Amino acid sequence: MNVLLMYYGTPYDESQIEPYYTDIRKGRKPSDELLRELKKRYGTIAKSPFNEVSFSLARRLEAELNLRIPRFPKGLQKAPKPRPNDADARVYLGGKHNAPFIADALQQMLADGAERAVALATTPHYSLRSIAEYEAAVQEALSQLGDSFPIVFIKEYYDHPAYIGAVARRLAAALWRTSAPQKAMVFFTAHSIPLRAAAADGGAYGEQIETSARMVASRLGIENWRVAWQSAGRSNEEWLGPDINDALRQAADDGYKEAVLSAIGFTADHLEILYDLDYEARQTAQECGIHLVRAQSLNDDYDYVRLLADLAEAAWYAEAK
Which of 121, 187, 242, 274 yields a CA-CA distance of 20 to 30 A from 253? Predict the structure, then answer.
């Protein structure tokens, strides 16, 4: 079993911020002002753990898949020999904006003799700005490598029961940390995208975020909840809103004293979590007199590992039929 696990990526240190930002901007270098701002943000959180979390997730996913493969499906008459590599599950990690890039992972898969693969990203919701770009990166890399093999893409898992359950468990723990859970406002946040991009895919991204939020809220019996958006880019066009900071101010105006954040559009801690929510949104909440709690991310926890293993396994064996 060959699995390509894709993630967004993050700089390892300050020296990599400019090339990382340039890659995000499709080869256009950022202005000095934009570069200074991004460096300041990374400096505020000291270090993003996104790469390490993703490396660990890949290894744990590989281990979980191998635990599920029958080691010796038939009786043996003598001591077993080492298993051949092609009998094992192999998970290759590819970053969208930093090494090891998706192209690097695919090159290694070809070198290892992969004949087919399953590809999935650490992004539960489909949009033209996320999953579609991962798919395009895979096809471009294979074209440049001059070789190819069948790849089954898992494009979304926003309503998978295991995903909803994992988010709900963490949100329940966060609600416990409030003094009056029934009176707290719950905000489900996701990365904003330009309105034109949201319209281009027929509004699917926003609808999927809303669906995930509704399913989690229903599972926990939460009545006071809203979807808010975060991490909008620096451009003159309109982005999906309301921004979480504006939403917190409105909640304060509505009389809420406590709020809980569930970053339902993200699965791991990174800049958008540690700065945009833990630093910026927390400052806004303090200014508004709101006690703010954030639910933990899925990161490389085993309930998330098992979910990804279920998805990869189902896609792999379905394709084999």
Answer: 274
Rounded to whole angstroms, how far apart are CA atoms 131 and 136? Answer: 9
Element (H, E) at 58: helix 50-68
Encode pLDDT of 225-264 as tens digits. 999 999 998 888 999 999 999 999 999 999 999 999 999 9
Residues 6+ apart with CB under 8 A from 94: 4, 5, 6, 7, 100, 101, 102, 103, 104, 105, 106
For position 288, which CATH number holds?
3.40.50.1400
Amino acid letter at 77? Q
Residue type at position 270? H
Claim to verify: residue 40 and residue 142 sit in the same structural domain: yes
Could you say which residues of the chain have pLDDT below 50?
none
136 and 203 together in one domain = no
- Cite the beta strand spans of 20-178 per DSSP E: 90-95, 117-121, 151-154
Q: How many domains does the chain contain in total?
A: 2
